[in-house]
Amino acid sequence: MVRRVSFVQRKTFEFEGSLFQEAITLADFDNDERNELVIGSVEGDLSIFQGEELKWRASNLGMITCLTVGDVKNKGTNSLVVITGEGICYTFDYHGQVDMRAS
Q1: β-pairing, 53-58 with 46-50?
Q2: pLDDT class of 100 with cuts at 50, 70, 90
Q3: 23-81, pLDDT tens digit by residue?
Q4: Nearest to 70 by CA among 97, 93, 89, 98
Q5: Can you give the three-state secondary structure of the chain, one letter per residue?
Q6: What is the pLDDT of residue 95?
Q7: Residue 87 has pLDDT above 60, yes or no
Q8: Is residue 61 a contact partner of residue 70, using CB atoms and an 8 Å limit?
């Protein structure tokens, strides 16, 4: 007899579209010491989930091929870096809300 036990709490997310495996990450984007799920699609949609809640969304960014979160600006806070197939690099910061000014 084989028994299977799962100790993982499952979450469900509403997200449509196709994505590259490098365009999904679990990281602390908003610097609150809790991880968010960040997903980018080939259709150009970017979504950030915290728990099962959609926290932020952007569209029309181009074909998102990869993304990452980290202190890439050496400011002591994390930023979200998004790379598109068109060669555009977006960086997004969080200051109580997502800074929509991509740099």
Answers
A1: antiparallel
A2: low
A3: 999 999 999 999 999 999 999 999 999 888 889 999 999 999 999 999 999 999 999 99
A4: 93
A5: CCCCCCCCCCCCCCCCCCCCHHHEEEECCCCCCCCEEEEECCCCCEEEEECCEEEEEECCCCCEEEEEEECCCCCCCCEEEEEECCCCEEEEEECCCECCCCC
A6: 79
A7: yes
A8: no
For 24, the token pair is 């999904």
Q: Are 47 and 15 in contact (CB under 8 A)?
A: yes
Contact 65, 83 (CB under 8 A): yes
Give the whole-angstrom CA distance, residue 63 versus residue 36: 21
Residues 43 and 25 sit within 8 Å (Cβ to Cβ): no
Maximum C-alpha span of the chain? 57
